[in-house]
């Protein structure tokens, strides 16, 4: 067990970008990865899955607490979707880099 904690993991040849990303900063790593349509597709599909997961999770949370009356259900569903839609911002991030729009948003960062 302690050997696994101390040992440095080998450089991966399965994912060629991992050795490239170790030598650059975080912004360069993100912008390079999100210019690749494969990474963007995987990221957006994952974000969409997270949206549905969060929506269902909020509704299930209230069901577990026993708050599942017909009077409250529409508000709980709306709240679940509202919380889940915060993931849309995360899904838009790779699309901004893919279409080269990050220069329009640089004023917000600096």
Structure characteristics:
110 residues, mainly alpha, 7 helices
Question: Secondary-structure blueprint of this entry?
Answer:
Layout: H1 2-6, H2 17-21, H3 26-33, H4 37-64, H5 73-84, H6 87-98, H7 102-109
Write a brief structural summary.
It is built from 7 helices and no strands. With 110 residues, it is mostly helical.
The poorly predicted ranges are none
Question: What's the shape?
Answer: elongated
Give the overall pLDDT as a whole number: 78
Oligomer kind = single chain
Distance between the termini: 44 Å
For the CA atoms, what is the radius of gyration?
20 Å
Please identify the structural class as seen in this structure.
Answer: mainly alpha
Number of helices: 7
- Largest sheet: number of strands, sense, barrel closure: none
Could you spell the SSE succession in H and E letters?
A: HHHHHHH
DSSP summary, beta strand count: 0
Beta strand %: under 5%
Q: Determine the fraction of residues in helical runs and give it as a percent range.
A: over 70%
């Amino acid at each position: 067990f302690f050997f696994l904690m101390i040992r440095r993991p080998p450089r991966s040849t399965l994912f060629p970008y991992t050795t490239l990303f170790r030598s650059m900063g975080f912004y360069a790593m993100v912008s390079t990865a999100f210019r690749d349509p494969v990474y963007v597709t995987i990221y957006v599909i994952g974000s969409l899955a997270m949206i549905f997961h969060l929506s269902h999770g909020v509704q299930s949370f209230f069901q577990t607490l026993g708050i599942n009356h017909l009077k409250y259900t529409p508000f709980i569903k709306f709240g679940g979707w509202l919380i889940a839609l915060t993931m849309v911002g995360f899904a838009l991030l790779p699309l901004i880099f893919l279409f080269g729009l990050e220069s329009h948003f640089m004023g917000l960062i600096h």
